[in-house]
Amino acid sequence: QKEVEQNSGPLSVPEGAIASLNCTYSDRGSQSFFWYRQYSGKSPELIMFIYSNGDKEDGRFTAQLNKASQYVSLLIRDSQPSDSATYLCAVNFGGRSTGNQFYFGTGTSLTVIP
Amino acid sequence: NAGVTQTPKFRILKIGQSMTLQCAQDMNHNYMYWYRQDPGMGLKLIYYSVGAGITDKGEVPNGYNVSRSTTEDFPLRLELAAPSQTSVYFCASSYTQRGPNQPQHFGDGTRLSIL
């Protein structure tokens, strides 16, 4: 069973703080990892993707991947009220039977308080 | 470029009716996907296609059918609508030469209610 798990939240942080979102996955052989942001009533939009162990930074966002521990995280620095949304973690597990499929977590709801 | 276009945006069906959700992309992407998202939940894959003429089942394919006659279009068919199919449906596409490890681009979604 392929599983991607996220804490549903809600997670509340004050404006300017660092928001930390976590995601764990079930398959050690997983290949690629994505973070999407979804505003209420809207479609998911890509924030970050990461393939290799370590950190990847893009502006205020940092994705962290630890394949040995099977988790991927997203840090949002200097959080803004406009960051308030649901953040979805998606994993491609690879492999012959599931290599073309992405599995999504249920999402973490983030609220940034002004 | 329009990206991924889904029609209709909203639809109400009666139990037992059928309909087709349309999805078109103009980015020459080879991979296309259909997901459903129930309230407070993540996305569940219904069907996907790795190219014209090739389709395969995802996690939750029962009650749905797809076809991929062209690179651009990937319609989703509901034959006998059931209340359990009330959901928001998202179509997505991506381009990859060596595997599906590229980010997906999503359409705006179709909100479907079965009454």
Structure overview:
The complex is a heterodimer of chains A (114) and B (115). In chain A, strands 2, 4, 5, 9, 10 and 11 form a 6-stranded mixed β-sheet that branches. A 5-stranded antiparallel β-sheet of chain A has the order 1-3-8-7-6, with no helix packed on it. Chain A is globular. Chain A has no helices and 11 strands. Chain A is mainly beta and 114 residues long. The model of chain A has no long low-confidence stretch (mean pLDDT 91). By secondary structure, chain B is mainly β. In chain B, the strands form 2 sheets. In chain B, strands 2, 4, 5, 6, 9, 10 and 11 form a 7-stranded mixed β-sheet that branches. Chain B has a 4-stranded antiparallel β-sheet with strand order 1-3-8-7, with no helix packed on it. The model of chain B has no long low-confidence stretch (mean pLDDT 92). Chain B has no helices and 11 strands. Classes of the chains: A mainly beta (114), B mainly beta (115). The interface between A and B is medium-sized, with 25 and 25 residues.
Features:
heterodimer, A: 114 residues, mainly beta, six-stranded mixed sheet, five-stranded antiparallel sheet, 11 strands, B: 115 residues, four-stranded antiparallel sheet
Task: Give me a quick take on this structure.
Helix content of chain A is 0%, strand content 54%. With 114 residues, chain A is an all-beta fold.
Beta-strand level of the residues of chain B, as a percent range? over 45%
Radius of gyration of chain B: 13 Å
- The strand count of chain A comes to 11
Described by its quaternary structure, the protein is heterodimer
